Amino acid sequence: DTTAWREDLKVLLRKAGEMGESTVFLLSDVQIKDESYVEDLNNLLNAGEVPNLFAADEVSQIAETLTPVMKQEGAADFSPSGLWRLFVQRCRANMHIVLAMSPIGEAFRNRLRKFPSLVNCCTIDWFTAWPADALHTVAHSYFRDVEMEESTREAVVKACSFFQVSVREASQEFFSELRRHNYVTPTSYLELLGAFRSLLDVKRSEVSQAKSRYDVGLEKLQQTAESVEGMQAELIELQPKLVVATKETDELMVKIEKDSADAQQVRDKVEV
After folding, report:
1. How far apart are CA 195 and CA 214, in angstroms?
2. How many beta carbons lie within 10 A of that of residue 161, not counting itself?
3. Exposed end of the chain (fewer CB within 10 Å): N or C?
4. 18 exposed, middle or buried (CB, 10 Å; 0-12, 13-18, 19+)?
5. What is the arithmetic mean of pLDDT over 6-27?
6. What average pLDDT is seen over the chain?
7. Do residues 129 and 166 make contact, with C-beta atoms less than 8 angstroms apart?
8. What is the pLDDT of residue 68?
9. Residue 183: what pLDDT?
10. What's the pLDDT score for residue 272?
11. How confident is the model at residue 15, as a pLDDT?
12. What are 258-267's pLDDT values in tens digits?
């Protein structure tokens, strides 16, 4: 948040201006959570300070620390404003601000328009596109820990390099025809590699889950087949007993029919 950002700025400025330590302040655009960060950087680049950053007691502490330094330099102005100017001079001398920004999107252009010190007080280094061998080396290093066959890894590396180079060439044609930029940066390439790796992990997880369900289904089918074989074996074992029981049942039915006929004859005689 903004409070933490301001506290970090205080630490850096006091190291550079109060302690006299050489400091590099490196900030990338993905770390800029609020445009007030850029406004503070604009003030630092332009004036070497951020207005109203330090409280009165902190300014007094800085002045006390720099008083001996002022004496060593033989200066005569020991007023609070003179000590503060020395602090700002030491900040500008000892702090080197490095900003890493991508030209993709509207944010970069808007910041350059709103905060002119990003241009007027900076040396701009435009990093050119990576050559094909660098793309190949980065991709190979990125996928080195991914479990896959070496031939597959090499094919993936070549495909990713081809994607980056082909899009870059298409962007150049796009600019030549329509005079509009489509930036293809090394960050885009790293995002491509990250997206491929994330997608690979997701798909491998899906395949693993499907395989697990398939294995469980096969196990259930195997258990069912074994149960059916067991029941078939039991039926085979019971078949002779069933034959005997059927024979006994048939004999019993014959006896019952004979007894029923005899009983009917006796009933008829009784009725007569």
Report:
1. 28
2. 22
3. C
4. buried
5. 91
6. 87
7. no
8. 87
9. 79
10. 64
11. 92
12. 888 878 787 7
Tracing tokens 């900076």 back to the chain, one arrives at 122
What are the tokens at 61?
């502490």
Going by the DSSP 8-state scheme, the letter that residue 29 receives in this structure is G
Amino acid in the structure at residue 26: L
Contact 163, 192 (CB under 8 A): yes
Helices (H) and strands (E) counted in the chain, each on its own, are 9, 2
Dihedral, CA of residue 234, residue 240, residue 243 and residue 249, to nearest 10: -90
- Six token digits for residue 63: 């002045």
Which of 181-185, 191-195, 233-237, 262-266 has the highest mean predicted lDDT (pLDDT)? 191-195
Contacts of 14 (CB under 8 A, 6+ apart): 62
Residue 203: count other Cβ atoms within 10 Å of its Cβ.
Answer: 10
Q: Is the pLDDT of residue 193 over 90?
A: yes
Which of the 8 DSSP states describes residue 31?
G
* CA–CA distance, 44 with 60 (Å, rounded to integer): 21
What is the signed CA dihedral for 239, 243, 246, 248, rounded to 10 degrees? -130
**Across 211-235, average pLDDT:** 88
Q: What share of the chain is helix, strand, coil (3-state, %, to 5)?
A: 75, 5, 20
Section 163-168 average pLDDT: 89
pLDDT at 1 over 80: no
Report whether pLDDT(76) > 80: no
Residue with tokens 């006896």: 255
Best CA proximity match to 121, nearest among 69, 8, 45: 45
Nearest to 89 by CA among 173, 185, 17, 167: 17
Q: Which amino acid, one-letter code, is at 20? A: G
**Token output for 23:** 């400091």
Take residue 233 and report the two structure tokens written for it: 């074996």
Helix ranges restricted to H, 28-116: 35-47, 56-72, 80-94, 106-114
